[in-house]
Amino acid sequence: MNWGTKYPREFTHKLRESLQKHLTVPHKFYCYTDKPVDEHDVEVKYPYLRGVWHKLALLENKGDSLFFDLDIDINSNIDFLCQDFDKFSVLDSTPWKPKNIPLLEFRMTQNTLVNSSVMRWSNHAHVFEKFQKHRDMYLRLYAGIDRYIYNEKVEYHTIRTDKITSWYQKIDKSPIVIYNGKYK
Amino acid sequence: MIYDQNIINAHKNIEWIAKAYPGRLLDAFSCFSQNQFDCKMWLIDCLNQYPFHFKYKTRDSIDIAILGGWYGLMAKLISTEFKLKPINNIYSYDFDNIATKIGKQIFPEIAFIEKDVTEIDLGRKNFSIVINTSCEHIEQNLLYKSIDSAPPKTLFVLQSNNYNQLQQHINCVRNLDHFKNQYKTRMENIRAYELQKEKYTRFMIIGVKK
């Protein structure tokens, strides 16, 4: 997903090259964007959505699917992700989440313990349909899809593995390092 | 106008909201902000001066519906500040079930109904006045459908704005004429108003369904 002006096109190319190198399972690469240029680009289907909410619309795509944010590093083989496509899965963010957030503050701010830098699904369009039905309310209540998924009783599973880490943890060479919150 | 805590003492309910629905505390603060208060009071001031006839105006009391009523600020202010007629019932509709639960707790005298604005059949109700202050959030065809389903002479009060920056605002209008023109074939005796805010202009029309 490359929407808006936050990430130059080079981020997309880098992700594609990383996947060619480190994902040996046969796959097709697509980039959903509001400015389609390259062969792998697909125009976003809901132009009125903004930012990360386009990620949720990807769940309309049926078939075994993996999603990666552009601001990640893939350092070694990631074939381990190609399983359990029957569940809608996101990352468990508890390993890097600050432990000292008071519970009331956590709940007041509709905080989250999941991260959608990596997502996995196959037949989960209903997650997006639920969002679309009352989109107005969800956009008012949540700053992004991680908070929506966690707080709105979306049926999800978490990918719990030490092979995916956050830059907050200062572990440089795990197979996937996500840079959540680094590029504002 | 300064927020009148004698009308809405939302702050006494903060502790309850924080315990029962902490994720809604900030949203409730937004609902009861000075800006929201000002826009609602502006509506009521204009409505109180509306000179034309509308449905059941000659009856002893009338029913009023608020569409997209959120936590009930509009309904509560109408209940205390509306001067044209005595009110029989005020119904505040919103599909947000938590908003209606919180509204019931804060304003038990208001009838909160959990229902999508687009699913309300106004033809089956006896509302004299229907208020919708969030037209910018609703697709235009659904707004038309809502008006078309209402009986003739129902008084509609509609607000919108030109604040395109929020992604929830899918149906902003360019200016007051644009807003008014959207409804001139469906309403008569239209009064139109605008209120300049810091970042945008709020528009309002009050008119009777033909």
Description of the molecule:
- The complex is a heterodimer of chains A (184) and B (210).
- Chain A is of the alpha/beta class and 184 residues long.
- Chain A has one domain: Spore Coat Polysaccharide Biosynthesis Protein SpsA, Chain A.
- Chain A contains 6 helices and 9 strands.
- Chain B has a single domain (34-209), classed as Vaccinia Virus protein VP39 (Rossmann fold, 3-Layer(aba) Sandwich), CATH 3.40.50.
- Chain B has a 7-stranded mixed beta sheet.
- In chain B, α3 (34-47) crosses α4.
- Chain B is globular.
- The interface between A and B is medium-sized, with 17 and 13 residues.
Radius of gyration of chain A (CA) equals 16 Å
User: Care to count the β-strands of chain B?
Assistant: 7
- Assembly of the depicted chains: heterodimer
**Share of β-strand residues of chain A:** 15-25%
As for the CATH topology of chain A, it is: Spore Coat Polysaccharide Biosynthesis Protein SpsA, Chain A
Alpha-carbon Rg of chain B, integer:
16 Å
CATH H-level superfamily title of chain A: Spore Coat Polysaccharide Biosynthesis Protein SpsA, Chain A
Secondary structure tally, helices of chain B: 7
In short:
The complex is a heterodimer of chains A (184) and B (210). Chain A is α/β, with parallel strands linked by helices.
What structural keywords apply?
heterodimer, A: 184 residues, alpha/beta, Spore Coat Polysaccharide Biosynthesis Protein SpsA, Chain A, 4-stranded mixed β-sheet, 3-stranded mixed β-sheet, 18% strand, globular, B: 210 residues, Rossmann fold, 7-stranded mixed β-sheet, 7 helices
